[in-house]
Amino acid sequence: MSLLYFVLLPLLALFLMPLYRKHLHIISVMLNLTLLTLALTCTHTLPMVERVAVDLPFAITFVLERASWLLLTLFTLIMSLVSLYHLRYGNDKALFVASTMLGVGVSGLILSHDLFNIYIFFEISSISAYLLTALNQDVKAYGGAIRYMIVGAFASLFLLLGIMLIYLSIGVLDIGAIAERFGLIEPRLQFLILLSLFIGFGIKAELFGLNFWVADIYQASRSSVGSLFSALLSKSYLFVLFHLTYLLHVSPSQLFFLGLIGALTFVAAEFSAFKSHESKRIFAFSTLGQIGIITLALSYADAMLSAAALMLILTHAVAKTALFLALDLLERHFHSSHSTIFARFHAPFLMGIIALAGLSLLGIPPFAGFVAKLSILTGLASLEAYGAVALILLISLIEAAYLFRLLTGFRQGTGKERLYVAWSHKLLLGFMVLLLLGFGLMPEPLLQLCQAAAASMLGGNHVPL
Amino acid sequence: MNLKRTLALSHLLTGLLVSVMIIALLGTLRLLTPPIDTIGETLLHINAQSTQVANAVTSVVTYFRGLDTLGEVSILFLSIFGVALHMQHSTRNLFGAHDTLLQIGAQVLFPLIVLFGVYIITHGHLSPGGGFQGGVIIASAFVLRFLAYGDHYEPSARLLTLSESLSGAGLVLLGVLGLLLGDRIFAQILSLGTMGTLLSGGVIELVYLFVGLKVAAEMTLLSQHFIKARDV
């Protein structure tokens, strides 16, 4: 089985679109379920190394090891869930094109081991994200998309600068070969390259100092699109950033800098979420907060903490998808995503889903989010990083405050409107919450997968040329 | 710390980072030394061994780094889809010209420009040119018709969409065939001719043919969207 199918099959489905233009929503589900099945069938053949182009020094290598497999499976699962969610709303050509291309982009980002090829997939996922932001085709959506495009161009510029400097210095683009020769580069130039790559990926990974645009983009987009941004886009960029960080063996001070950025991202985002009263902004800032914790944990380059961070990536992606999709149902009904809509409806199932996914996000037992956050805290404590433990616990109180404020909205208001939720949506949302509950009650299999993935990530999954 | 202050701090930090970056860039560009291995000689050596393509740049674009080219074609598709989706259309052409001389000129030049575009595509492996350049040249023939005929000219949307779609699918299928029958995406599954002749490129020529057709259809659609835009 070729790893290229994760890129080629969606592209084929897109280019053949005129042949089945009235059934795009069905094709989308079939495609994503096929890709999910393909990802699951790779479990027993890991690690997979495939030379997409064989002639050195032009070779492009795709690598699927434990960490990238975990993310690929997560991404195809989330794409499948989101496409199943949209099945009920019929044909949407723009959504089909943009979301399928986003899938191509993020898959390529995590599979490719060639820096220029990564840049191509970076562009594909970026342009897809601009299109997804503008789906609503109103002033707010266009404003958000244009802002995103300007920021994205800025990120592309820095990434391209970093790639250019690497190529001019050592004449290779394969990241395994770059890792071998990176030490030959003059130290000041090394710093400049790392800074360029950090700004390029940091903007897209929504890190502090580079994430001022994020909440506006989420607010301008449809809520269902927010689930793709939160679960796929930011996670893929974060993965590539840390993949490169570990491969290039950056110095402890640079890892400390990343950890500091992570901590600042967490603190600033949680305070911003607390100040906000718009649900999509709250969820957007909450995503930033979790990215902050993940960045902080990954910056220690420790096996246990990295496994915990990967677990948080998985649990957060599922919880946020459930929350954003539930919010999408509300937004379609009320044409608003202000937090006051929580007081205007009566739908016990939907209220339950939002509450349970919110609790997992917060790290309350028995949900999977609890296991992930507890693993991060114990990992930090084992490294005697008590300051980081205290910070996470303290700031989590703010997270608890705004999430409970949101949930108490259910108890307010009178004369509530009864909201109908389709069975297909109930099944989907219920499945996601059951996943969170299941992995919370029986976390061992997932933890083992995350530990294997972390070992592979920290080992550098180096493919020597 | 309120939201505005957080955002202001973010802006400040970003500004600082960018400033540091620019200063560092200016200061360290002088540190660049030539790469340890120069790529030119290696490329010519590998090209002579793997392909019979006289234009080594074409080998890089379509064969050695064919996946990047497929990605670039996808980016073009996505960008033009975005423009088509969001542009407000008018039923009237912006250029309502009715100049007989221009129309006769366009009539004469149209086949010549298309022919030139086809030449550039089919000879991309022999001389500078290829699918992207040839495709844009073919699209320019259609732009000339838009300008000359105004509202009286409307290329078949069905034909353009089908060309764009089938050429894209053809390109992907060629990649899949390479994977199934050869050792890579766009593997040489066709026999190679003698270097310097028209049929020497094997799969490379097919790649450029599909790219050229796709670029021509997409650029024509793009031009049509801009020309018929309500506000420019």
Description of the structure:
The complex is a heterodimer of chains A (465) and B (232). By secondary structure, chain A is mainly α. Chain A contains 18 helices and four strands. Chain A has one domain (5-458). Helix content of chain A is 73%, strand content 3%. In chain A, the strands form two sheets. Chain A has a two-stranded antiparallel ribbon. In chain A, strands 3-4 form a two-stranded parallel sheet. The longest helix of chain A is centred in the N-terminal third of the chain and has 32 residues, at 139-170. By secondary structure, chain B is mostly helical. Helix content of chain B is 69%, strand content 0%. Classes of the chains: A mainly alpha (465), B mainly alpha (232). Chains A and B meet through α1, β1, α4, α5 and α6 of A and α1, α2, α3, α4 and α7 of B.
Summarize this entry quickly.
By secondary structure, chain A is mainly α. Chain A contains 18 helices and four strands. In chain A, helix 3 (66-86) crosses helix 18 (444-458), helix 5 packs antiparallel against helix 6 (139-170) and helix 11 (252-275) packs antiparallel against helix 12 (279-298).
Comma- or semicolon-separated keywords:
heterodimer, A: mainly alpha, disordered C terminus, B: 232 residues, mainly alpha, 8 helices, globular
Main β-sheet description of chain A: 2 strands, antiparallel
Number of strands of chain A: 4
Overall pLDDT of chain A: 89
Number of domains of chain A: 1
Please report which band the strand proportion of chain B falls in: under 5%, 5-15%, 15-25%, 25-35%, 35-45% or over 45%. under 5%
State the assembly state of the protein chains: heterodimer
Runs of chain B in which pLDDT lies below 50 for 5 or more consecutive residues are: none
Number of strands of chain B: 0
Judged by helices, strands and strand pairing, the structural class of chain B is mainly alpha
Spatial order of the strands forming the largest sheet of chain A? 1-2
Radius of gyration of chain B: 23 Å
Number of helices of chain A: 18
Q: Give the structural class of chain A.
A: mainly alpha
Task: Estimate what percentage of residues of chain A fall within beta strands.
Answer: under 5%
Unreliable parts of chain A: 461-465
Q: List the domain count of chain B as a whole number.
A: 2
